[in-house]
Design goal:
This protein is mainly alpha-helical. It is built from 3 helices and no strands.
């Protein structure tokens, strides 16, 4: 039995946290090298995978990941969309992507 089983962890409810920057930067990168609709769809599909699959699986090994509220998940999607927009339109206007996926 884990030594952390008696600790009640609070879900991440922040609108902005360090992961917001990760979502923004990942969105820029994906929006730059793939179709914006596909990139955003992929990033939106990540959220339920993170919360409902990865988080419970990693919790078995005492790894806290994806322990967030709907509010935080939706703000992550907003940062994803901003990143994809920046990558697809602003960055592409400045530099040609080195390759294109999908």
């Amino acid at each position: 039995m884990s030594k952390n089983t008696n600790i009640a962890l609070k879900r991440n409810d922040a609108l902005f946290d360090p992961w917001s920057i990760v979502h923004l930067c990942t969105g820029v990168a994906l929006g730059w090298v793939m179709d914006p609709f596909f990139a955003l769809s992929l990033m939106i599909l990540w959220e339920p995978l993170e919360i409902f699959v990865l988080s419970p699986f990693l919790a078995r090994f005492d790894i806290v990941f994806g322990h967030e509220t709907l509010r935080n998940s939706l703000s992550d999607i907003v940062f994803d969309a901003m990143g994809v927009g920046l990558g697809a339109w602003a960055l592409t206007a400045l530099a040609t992507p080195p390759f294109n996926l999908f």
